[in-house]
Write a structure and sequence with these properties.
Elements (H helix, E strand, L loop, with lengths): L1 H7 L2 E4 L3 E4 L6 E5 L13 E3 L4 E5 L6 E4 L6 E4 L6 E2 L5 E2 L5 E3 L2 E6 L4 E6 L4 E7 L7 E4 L4 E6 L6 E9 L5 E10 L4 E6 L4 E6 L2 E6 L4 E7 L5 E7 L4 E6 L3 E6 L5 E7 L8 E3 L4 E6 L4 E7 L5 E8 L7 E3 L4 E6 L4 E6 L7
Antiparallel strand pairs: 1-7, 2-3, 3-32, 4-5, 5-6, 6-7, 8-9, 10-11, 11-12, 12-13, 14-15, 15-16, 16-17, 18-19, 19-20, 20-21, 22-23, 23-24, 24-25, 26-27, 27-28, 28-29, 30-31, 31-32
């Protein structure tokens, strides 16, 4: 299978297609994904500061797109499975990716493998089997590990931990499982405190990166807990609630809630810009994007709202003050410029 995947790898640079849309608060620009007509089941997009690229696993297309935030040009990496029909009736192929040590980690729903991609060559350099179907992948630099959430297994719900090494040639292999009775929903790594955070129903779990153990469970006040983000320097954990709420927990006060704001329904994934102290939250049911300001005390204020798309549930900010939001039905991304002043 690895040989077959390698022979299928292809890199292509694609010029994006833009279509302007109007908005009273935030202006969006639609960026079309090639082969996206008919819809793409986006789930998780991520910005790599070291690669200076937005990582976009484009679902059923079987392609990972790397988007330059300055030129908006795209590089397509292929060779993954495509149009895999899941139990929920959603066509997916790859739906999450993260970067570490110059490599990109991409779990594949179709092959149930965790792939390691070299973006310089656009090739899969190694892979490892996954225990079950995946949700999110995140790189843990302090341990040279890759963590993959697997919440849908009937046998056990886990974060599967893989060791990654570049000595000699890149290699990745299963190390251990972190087991839960529910969740894990979302996954955020905090290198400042050497912790990871994930939602377990109405609690946010705090995981020690070194011992791989849950050391605390903090009430998140959500009816339906969804995405997480962190500001390690300021000491805040952000939790998105599906019912349409954002919550701020203080890392230095044992998860004490210090901020909360209610807005559009259908919150899922969230993202945070630490340089601006801005929290980005797409609202899939109300088809909006909310930009929130975070005060030094963790209090939240609504800075602006923009029109988004139905089921627009994933978001990522980059280092050019762009906000990228998924538009799954149109198979495109919506790009907004964050022109709001930094919160100090």
């Amino acid at each position: 299978m690895f040989v077959v995947l390698m022979t299928l790898m292809l890199i292509g640079v694609i010029n994006p297609v833009f279509a302007e849309s109007t908005n009273t608060s935030l202006q969006s620009t639609a960026v079309s994904i090639p082969d996206g007509r008919g819809g793409i089941h986006f789930d998780d997009i991520n910005y790599s500061a070291s690669l200076h690229k937005l990582l976009v696993p484009a679902g059923r297309t079987g392609k990972l797109y790397l988007i330059d935030p300055v030129s908006y040009s795209m590089t397509a990496i292929t060779g993954f499975s495509s149009s895999i029909k899941e139990v929920k009736g959603v066509d997916t192929g790859i739906s999450s990716a993260d970067e570490g040590e110059g490599f990109i980690f991409v779990p594949d729903h179709g092959t149930q493998k965790l792939n390691v991609v070299d973006p310089k060559t656009g090739s899969i350099v190694t892979s490892a089997p996954l225990a079950s179907d995946v949700d999110f992948v995140r790189y843990v630099g302090v341990n040279h590990e890759v963590w993959v959430t697997e919440p849908d297994s009937k046998e056990k719900k886990i974060i599967e931990v893989f060791k990654f090494t570049t000595e000699g040639k890149p290699a990745i292999y299963h190390s251990l499982d972190i087991t839960f009775t529910k969740g894990p929903e979302s996954l955020t790594i905090d290198p400042v405190h050497q912790k990871a955070y994930t939602n377990l129903g109405k609690n946010a779990a705090v995981i020690d990166l070194k011992s791989h153990t849950v050391i605390a469970n903090w009430p998140n006040s959500c009816e339906k807990s969804r995405g997480t983000a962190v500001d390690g320097q300021k000491g805040f954990l952000f939790v998105g609630c599906g019912e349409g709420k954002a919550v701020v927990l203080d890392l230095n006060q044992s998860g004490k809630q210090v901020g909360s704001l209610t807005f559009g329904a259908g919150v899922d994934l969230i993202d945070y810009d630490s340089s601006l102290s801005h929290l980005y939250i797409p609202n899939g049911k109300s088809a909006t994007l909310s930009v929130l300001g975070v005060s030094p005390k963790g209090e939240l204020s609504l800075l602006g709202v923009g029109q988004a798309a139905n089921r627009a549930h994933c978001v990522a900010g980059d280092d050019q003050n762009n906000i990228w939001v998924c538009d799954p039905h149109q198979g495109q991304l919506l790009r907004y410029k964050d022109a709001f002043a930094a919160v100090k």
